[in-house]
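Sanity check

After download, print the first record. It should look like this:
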Amino acid sequence: MISSIRGEVLASGAGWVVIAIGGMGFRVEVPTTLQGGHVGEQLFLHTHLVVREDSLTLFGFATSEELEVFGYLLGVSGVGPRSALGVLSVLTPIEVAQAATSEDEKPFRKVSGIGPKTAKLIALQLAGKLQHLTLGAGSASSGAAQSNGTGSQQKVAATVEQGLLGLGYTEAQSHAAVQDAIEAGAPSNEAGLLRAALMLLQAPRVGGRNENKR
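Expected structure tokens:
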């Protein structure tokens, strides 16, 4: 497996680059949004090699997050490498994660070649698999939102805490998990916040409020 590639760009076009490695030129399929793929520049890509009976195709991405999302997309029924690459040409990894977390298929319908049925499958089959990306994003803005806390936010948090109580968690565990999820930038809707809080309860972060409380 070729996990990465680095070298001078020999040629480039919409959705592909050719990179010089050891006297050879490797063609790599890339998102159309790739930055820095200009001829003569040095380029590093995280790669995924797709092996077929009649071809070897290398797909490359600027970030490990893009590569991770690409791998998950390939696991969705009906989504091939080209369609997965198309998704990452239209949506960022964070946008994919947010859509999957809320099970919203509409963003995927923007991708050429992906119909309503496949878009729905992507949203459903990726749900719960990319939450760590949504928690990592927006943490800076979540602090400001929390400090300005509105009644609506408090109501959502209280509803999620009640839901966790109904699942058998203690009041202290429920409150801590919800607050940690909010601070980490979890979605502000009830479903998204509940999923994020459950993830923290099931896999406590080192040094987090939930550690050693169960």
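If your output differs, re-run the checksum step. Summary of this record's structure: Residues 151-166 form the longest helix (16 residues).
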